[in-house]
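Could you help me review a protein record that somebody else here produced? This is what I was given.
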Amino acid sequence: MARFYTGCRPGSRCPTGQEEIAPAFESRADLPLIEDNCTSARVIMGSLWGQSAPTTQHAATIYAEILLAPGGAIPIDAEADERAVMLVGGEAEINGLPLELYGLSVLAPGAPMQLTSASGGRVMLLGGEAFATPRHVWWNFVSSSRERIDQAKADWRSGAFGTVPGDREEFIPIPDVPLTNSDS
């Protein structure tokens, strides 16, 4: 069962003009699973290899969990404007270059690539269409406006974001200095 927010607030992939729509929450059990002998991919958002997730998206997006058995290999198509992979378990390589555990590897645009694993791995694939306007990033907040990011920081600190439905226990405090590249 996948559970995630789909509304457009700082931190989500929303085109300019849709950044302030109301946040929403979806819980889905019907996400497509693509399988072959040595790999499987669960499409969480968007479309991958002809399968589309029923989740809401506000821009062309791909988000999928890929499980590679030992010796598994799959192509990573060049259809999305922006693509990245993150190794979250085991080991894997992209075009022969080892992926770092929990490191985000941004892929070259327009180039088809091959994801492989000699001993098995779990990789998240994410990406989508490039935005026409610049974005500013601070921690988990992304916006076309630096002022909006400052407001999002204040909203997070004051509790205005609320909690995840069914999970009132976990709260992640906003850091004084984020571990992201920031320009705000």
Q: What stands out?
A: The first strand starts at residue 2 and ends at 5. Residues 146-158 form the longest helix (13 residues).
